[in-house]
Structures are given as C-alpha cells and as structure tokens.
C-alpha cells in the first residue's frame, strides 16, 4: 500500500525513490515528463465554419428571429441547409452567428441544462432570461480563460406574458433592445429594424414583423457576400416556440441587365 | 507621440455680440519638459484679423512669416486690407499647398468682417493641418487641450455675450481646460476684438 | 508581414477586451451625493443599445457607476452585490460606504494581472452623514473626492467640473469664500449641463441619462420635488434614501 496520497493514481515505479525521500509537495511524477500532445491542445483562435447575421425583433405577441441557412468555410458556401435557430425549452429560441462548431457545443450544453432542470420534476422551467444569463456566464468564463466560444448569440423568448430579447457575444458583452442584429445585420439591418420597431413593439403585428424581417433578409442577401437566399424565422409567443420551414427570398436582378460588372459579361 | 503634441499649446476663439475673442496659453515645451512661458502663438494679421497657430513651434514661426508675406502681397495688389473670411481661405490654400508634407499647425482665425452696411460681423474659423476649413457660429478650438476646451466651452458659452462677458467666458474656458492638460498652460493671453478697439490681457495661470 | 506566404508563422491573439463608450460622473454635497451616467452602449461606430444602465444601487446609501468594458463592468457589479449580500447575512446590516470602497479596491487589485477594464465611481452617504465620492482606476487605486468624471468624455467634463464645483480659476468676492458644497438643485443643473455638453461633442455619449441621488438620513427631499420623472428606490423611508431621475439625451 502506498500511503502517500500524492502518489495515488500514478503509475508505480518501485525502482525510483522507493522510500519517498521527497517532501510531499515535491513528489516526483512517475508519468512521462512530457505529454507528446501537450503542444497540440487547440483553442479557438479564429472561427472556421461560420454563420452570418441573425436578426431579432419584439412585436405585439412576442419575439421574432431570423437567420439564413448558410454555414460558410471562409468564402466557400460550404453547408447550405444549416439551421442556426435553436429552441431551448418551450419559451426560448437561440440564434447563432459565428463559429458553427462552437454553436453546436452550446446547443449540447443547453440541452443538457434543460434536461437537468426537467429531472428535478418541480414544474419549474428555464425561461429566456435564465438561458441568457447562463450563456452570458459561459461566454464570459470562456473569454476569461482566453479560450472563447466564437459566437455572437441572440436569445429571444416569451414567458409569463413578458417578452425577452438579448445579445451575448464571445467577449461576454450583453445588452437588450427592442431590435437586435449580429454581424453585418448590425450595420445593414439595424437602421431598418429600429425605424420600424423601436417604440412600436406593442402594436407591431405578426404579419408586419414577418414582412420586415423578410425585407431585411433580402437586403442582407443583396449586400452580404456570406449570406444565402434561404432562411428560417422563429417566433416565440404564448403559444410557444415555432421555427418555420426554410423560406426562399424573392430577388430581382433585371436591373443589372445593362450594367457592366454585374453578372455575366456579354462582351 | 505625435509631432502635433511635441511642443504643446492650445488656442480657442469665441463669438460674442458684435465682438470676437481669441485666446491661447503661453507654454512652449519639449515633450513633457517646459521650455518657455512666454511663447505667444496668436498674431495680429490686420487690426481686425487675428490668427492663432498651435502646433509644432518651428512651424508657428514659419507660418507666421508666410502669412505676413502673403498678406503684404495681397494688400499691395488689392490696395485694401484683407477681410477675415478671405484670410481664412488664404490660410486654407497655404496649408493645402503642402498637402503631402504639411505644416504641423492647426490655425484658428478670429476677426470682424465688414458688411455691406459698414458694420462689423464677428467671424471665426479653424482648419486642420492641411487646410480643411471649419466655420462655427459659437466657438472653435485647437491644440493639445482641444477636447477639454470643447467640453468647457460647450458648458460655459452662450449667444450674444458683451465684450467683458465674452472675455470672462473665454478666459475661464481656456484656464480650466489647460489646467487639465499637461502640454498646455504656463499662463495665457486673451484678445477681445470690438469694432473700435482690441483688448489684450495676459492672464496668470497655474505654473505646474 | 501578411503576404500570404508561410515563411513567417503568423500569430493572431484573441483580444479579451473591448471599449463600450459612455461616461459617468459623481458629485458629493454636504448631506447628499449625485451619481450619474448616460445609457448608451456602443462598440466602435455602432450603437449596440440606447438603454444599458451603468449606474447601480448597491444599498440604501451606496450607488456604484461602472464604465469601460461592459462585460467586465456587469460581472464586477454582480460580484460586488454578492459580497454585500454576504456581508448582510453575516452582520445583519448594510456595509458602510468606506468599507465598500475598500472592498472594491481589494476586488480590483485581486485581478491585477488580468484586470477588470473598468473605471468605477462609488457615491453615497458616509456613516457620519456626509456625502462622499470614491473614484477608482481599473486596478484599484482609489481616493475620496468631492467630484469626479470618468469614461469616454472624462476629458470634456472634468475641467468643467473643476470650474463649477471646485471654483477653480475663480476668485471669490471680496471678504467672501467659495462654498465647500453646493446645494442639490445647483448640482443637478451642473450634472445635466455636463451630459448635454458631452452628448453634443462626443459620439459615444447620449441616448439617455440616469441621475441617482442619495440623501442622508433625516434630510428632507428638498431640491428634488421639482424633478421630472423621479423614482424612489430606497427600501425604508427613515434611513438614507436613494432616488433616480431619468432624462432623455440626444440620440444622434
């Protein structure tokens, strides 16, 4: 029996320091001194497979969120039917831009969290505010370890008659507003969203909200080179979460007919 | 550190009721070290046009001479004194001539412009170091304490100040701004231009 | 040398910090303190939200304003509040202001080698009933002052405060001296003027203004009755009291 706790769990090597001549805190390790894979520990230094903007607004009955179906590999449109909206429980939807593998990791974290909550069987469920708080803590903790989850996330929900819409990113920065957008959407769509939504979130109808997001997704498709003309819309209302089927954006290109530099050259 | 901050110094100009004021600190430094507390950077161009030249000290002198020369040429050719607005454009074009090897100065111009009826209208302007003109109805600032000057001036200035009130406003603005700037201070000078006289006052300031 | 070749290995380092703009300010009176901050949160040229509070009620006699990197700021406030709750459970009373100040210094210095990128201003009422302002740098250096501005428009606001609060560069009338403390209505006017000025000349300041007023125990709310949109936040009416006044600022 080895009576030195610091040796427990280590490979035995009776030929070496059999009498424990070292002081406790300096116990020699019997394991290989150099882990051959130590240098290979990877941290996310840059996103690889990425999703572009996510848009979200508050409206009369709850919140609405939209994200296209593309996951890019650099400038390559790599995966064209990826879903970037994720339901968490029955009151929350999460939209992700940035690294898609990190997003999938976050999905499994959240699914585990919801399952854990369910097993308590106390009729309590996590709402959007709790999900956002949890994500903010995870994102901030990871940035503090200099090993961030490379995403900008939107969390939207509707619970106990109250809307919730908030942002959190790889730095752990959070905020809420009646209209939110990540990535290019923050530059291109936000002016349109704020003009239509801010101050009118209590009267904006579902049809108006849907049309607004559709129009913004079209503008983004026209101007964001990492976007796709296929997207999904999620709503969270007192009826729960609904993530739509893929919607195709109608686009017009005939204006480009006579312009050199647009489309195929005829001369 | 930028060459614009090498010698330090700040200038401000303000509009009042039928009067204008222009003021500067008196410091000349070499980075953090103070060299002189009598370095004037405001110069009369005519009786009714004054220019402040904060920035690199060697260019203060060079530009002062340059403007004096060009002004003399203008006066001889035109046989009349230059108006402040015209002078502002002279400053602008002089600086833009050196677009790709600029003088490191951000001039401030203050003057009284003659109107068609024979009255005098306050005129102030400032440019960046390559001559982009900025006219203002209230005040203009330049130099190492410009952000502080903006903050204080925005709080103290009001329209239609009489000459003595304008003096007090610009003096307080300048003094309190340069006291928070390591590269400006060491005394100050204020000019108040009215239609029939120019008042110059040298102010004592903190010497630390 | 980003020339696309592999001859020199490239290192891109993740930057764990950001600057979210905004400005905060606090002024101490004889028996009150005013702590204020704008509500704009920005990154670069983008306004992230027009309402993100930077000023927080800690107790009935302490208010903390936090400015800099928003994620660090929110986390720091969360941890300070947690420590104050533990103190309440252990001692059955609120922590005194000067103790909160020392707590904040310790908490900031604990992160000396990975600092909270945050400028803190703590305002409130001291145990002797006097108004107090404590200002901190990101690693915990602090001092008690009568007034302090911090954040994006510090350089615009602080010299104005020197002039209007400390009467710097102003001579008192013959045989008179400047007041050591200003009355509450004057302080509120100066705070509002400071923020409208900063909003005018600084792109990161604007949208909304939250002014917290802490009144010493027994002091009447005299000077506050005229304030539009005022709301009381204190838990009891016979101790030190906290109020908040919300105003709009220009949104451009």
TrEMBL record, chain A:
<dbReference type="GO" id="GO:0019774">
    <property type="term" value="C:proteasome core complex, beta-subunit complex"/>
</dbReference>
<comment type="function">
    <text>Non-catalytic component of the proteasome.</text>
</comment>
<dbReference type="InterPro" id="IPR016295">
    <property type="entry name" value="Proteasome_beta4"/>
</dbReference>
<protein>
    <recommendedName>
        <fullName>Proteasome subunit beta</fullName>
    </recommendedName>
</protein>
<dbReference type="InterPro" id="IPR016050">
    <property type="entry name" value="Proteasome_bsu_CS"/>
</dbReference>
<dbReference type="GO" id="GO:0005737">
    <property type="term" value="C:cytoplasm"/>
</dbReference>
<dbReference type="Pfam" id="PF00227">
    <property type="entry name" value="Proteasome"/>
</dbReference>
<dbReference type="GO" id="GO:0005634">
    <property type="term" value="C:nucleus"/>
</dbReference>
<dbReference type="InterPro" id="IPR023333">
    <property type="entry name" value="Proteasome_suB-type"/>
</dbReference>
<keyword id="KW-0647">Proteasome</keyword>
<dbReference type="InterPro" id="IPR001353">
    <property type="entry name" value="Proteasome_sua/b"/>
</dbReference>
<keyword id="KW-0963">Cytoplasm</keyword>
<keyword id="KW-0539">Nucleus</keyword>
<dbReference type="GO" id="GO:0051603">
    <property type="term" value="P:proteolysis involved in protein catabolic process"/>
</dbReference>
<dbReference type="InterPro" id="IPR029055">
    <property type="entry name" value="Ntn_hydrolases_N"/>
</dbReference>
UniProtKB/TrEMBL annotation, chain B:
<keyword id="KW-0539">Nucleus</keyword>
<keyword id="KW-0647">Proteasome</keyword>
<dbReference type="InterPro" id="IPR023333">
    <property type="entry name" value="Proteasome_suB-type"/>
</dbReference>
<comment type="similarity">
    <text>Belongs to the peptidase T1B family.</text>
</comment>
<dbReference type="InterPro" id="IPR001353">
    <property type="entry name" value="Proteasome_sua/b"/>
</dbReference>
<dbReference type="GO" id="GO:0005737">
    <property type="term" value="C:cytoplasm"/>
</dbReference>
<dbReference type="GO" id="GO:0005634">
    <property type="term" value="C:nucleus"/>
</dbReference>
<comment type="function">
    <text>Component of the proteasome, a multicatalytic proteinase complex which is characterized by its ability to cleave peptides with Arg, Phe, Tyr, Leu, and Glu adjacent to the leaving group at neutral or slightly basic pH. The proteasome has an ATP-dependent proteolytic activity.</text>
</comment>
<dbReference type="GO" id="GO:0019774">
    <property type="term" value="C:proteasome core complex, beta-subunit complex"/>
</dbReference>
<dbReference type="GO" id="GO:0016787">
    <property type="term" value="F:hydrolase activity"/>
</dbReference>
<dbReference type="InterPro" id="IPR016050">
    <property type="entry name" value="Proteasome_bsu_CS"/>
</dbReference>
<dbReference type="GO" id="GO:0043161">
    <property type="term" value="P:proteasome-mediated ubiquitin-dependent protein catabolic process"/>
</dbReference>
<dbReference type="Pfam" id="PF00227">
    <property type="entry name" value="Proteasome"/>
</dbReference>
<keyword id="KW-0963">Cytoplasm</keyword>
<dbReference type="InterPro" id="IPR033811">
    <property type="entry name" value="Proteasome_beta_3"/>
</dbReference>
Automatic annotation (TrEMBL), chain C:
<dbReference type="Pfam" id="PF00227">
    <property type="entry name" value="Proteasome"/>
</dbReference>
<protein>
    <recommendedName>
        <fullName>Proteasome subunit beta</fullName>
    </recommendedName>
</protein>
<comment type="similarity">
    <text>Belongs to the peptidase T1B family.</text>
</comment>
<keyword id="KW-0963">Cytoplasm</keyword>
<dbReference type="GO" id="GO:0005634">
    <property type="term" value="C:nucleus"/>
</dbReference>
<dbReference type="InterPro" id="IPR029055">
    <property type="entry name" value="Ntn_hydrolases_N"/>
</dbReference>
<comment type="function">
    <text>Component of the proteasome, a multicatalytic proteinase complex which is characterized by its ability to cleave peptides with Arg, Phe, Tyr, Leu, and Glu adjacent to the leaving group at neutral or slightly basic pH. The proteasome has an ATP-dependent proteolytic activity.</text>
</comment>
<dbReference type="GO" id="GO:0005737">
    <property type="term" value="C:cytoplasm"/>
</dbReference>
<dbReference type="InterPro" id="IPR001353">
    <property type="entry name" value="Proteasome_sua/b"/>
</dbReference>
<dbReference type="InterPro" id="IPR023333">
    <property type="entry name" value="Proteasome_suB-type"/>
</dbReference>
<dbReference type="GO" id="GO:0051603">
    <property type="term" value="P:proteolysis involved in protein catabolic process"/>
</dbReference>
<dbReference type="InterPro" id="IPR016050">
    <property type="entry name" value="Proteasome_bsu_CS"/>
</dbReference>
<comment type="subunit">
    <text>The 26S proteasome consists of a 20S proteasome core and two 19S regulatory subunits. The 20S proteasome core is composed of 28 subunits that are arranged in four stacked rings, resulting in a barrel-shaped structure. The two end rings are each formed by seven alpha subunits, and the two central rings are each formed by seven beta subunits. The catalytic chamber with the active sites is on the inside of the barrel.</text>
</comment>
<comment type="subunit">
    <text>Component of the proteasome complex.</text>
</comment>
<keyword id="KW-0539">Nucleus</keyword>
